[in-house]
């Protein structure tokens, strides 16, 4: 889903002559990377807002995204599973942080 969307964005950039056809794959990957970072951030901030723990959400997601980006870890077969698992892990950490 995210990869297809990033492909459409990169294709639009090519058609608009903002980037060349040679740069298509590079920009597709760049948009994919940005989206796979922003989507969990937005989801955790939304869940944090619903739970009334917005600060906790922001404090938990920033190190989580940094560690995930540079250390690798579990690789799910589908993008949405990865995002869902990321959101669940951070949400559980937010709730436990609030309880302690």
DSSP helix count? 4
Q: Choose one word for the global shape.
A: elongated
Query: Percent of residues in beta strands?
Result: under 5%
Low-confidence stretches: none
Helix content: over 70%
Name the average pLDDT.
82
Q: Rounded to an integer, what's the Rg over CA atoms?
A: 16 Å
Order of helices and strands: HHHH
Largest sheet: none
Oligomeric status: single chain
The structure class reads mainly alpha
DSSP, total strands: 0
Alpha-carbon distance between the termini?
37 Å
Tags for this entry?
mainly alpha; 81% helix; 4 helices
Ordered list of secondary-structure elements with their pairings:
Layout: H1 2-15, H2 24-51, H3 54-71, H4 79-99
Please tell me about this protein's structure.
With 100 residues, this protein is mainly alpha-helical. It is built from 4 helices and no strands. The chain has helices at residues 2-15, 24-51, 54-71, 79-99. Helix 1 packs across helix 2 (24-51), helix 2 (24-51) packs antiparallel against helix 3 (54-71) and helix 2 packs parallel to helix 4 (79-99). The mean pLDDT is 82.
